[in-house]
Write a structure and sequence with these properties.
Its main location: mitochondrion. This protein is mainly α and 260 residues long. The protein has one domain: Mitochondrial carrier domain (Mitochondrial carrier fold), CATH 1.50.40.10. The chain contains nine helices and no strands.
Length: 260
Amino acid sequence: MGESSGYKEYGAGLLAGVATVLIGHPFDTVKVKLQKYNTEAHGIKYKSGLHCAARILATEGVRGLYTGATPSFIGVAFESSLAFGIYSQTKRALQEGAQSSEPQAQVIIPSAAFAGAIISFVLCPSELVKCRMQVQGTDSLVPTSSRFSSPLDCAIKTIKTEGVTGIFRGGYTTLLRESIGNAVFFSVYENVRYRMHLLLKRGSLEQSYLTDMGIGILSGGLGGVAFWSAVLPLDVAKTIIQTTSDNSHSRNPFQILNSV
């Protein structure tokens, strides 16, 4: 693969990140509210994701589902671009000279974990702002006087009250989630894609753009399921760490999960 293909991967990752936020942000808003309030002893209790979504629509309208979308667009777009670009370039460097095209765990796992560790530095501040915006809806226990008027207001107030390090609250947990999650995602993604292309060749089926897109959707979808199955508990801990107003609150994800 030529050098230009590396830039294509960064560009493709950027577009994928934008599409992810457009389609997935309402689900993410529901997820964050469930993680925040259904784990607190005296918080709001939602019966289900559907109940939570209905409450948001009833109190805030459709816009409520897209609360915190701006930092999410910035974070996820750059995260996706960097994840695919860094992963692809690291993988090429590690498998240089390798004869087999079959996915190799000793190449995929370190490449993906490294990409995940790098992107966690971009994701942590954007996700902190996103999560704080998402949990302060009219359905929450956050007093009106303490609410943020915009993502920028949230970032500025966080830095003023907690210092520059405050914007990186939950950084260790984000790094763990992204390193482990990306290693799982790309392992599943690469193997499913490789096996499906093998099946196509053996079946002598004509490979077309639609076939290729279908394989991409299936392998990416299964990779996504594997990602969240592996790291969802860490994501719960991250949401709690980033949205708590108590500066003395534990930032150890394992302590938090134990208390949950």
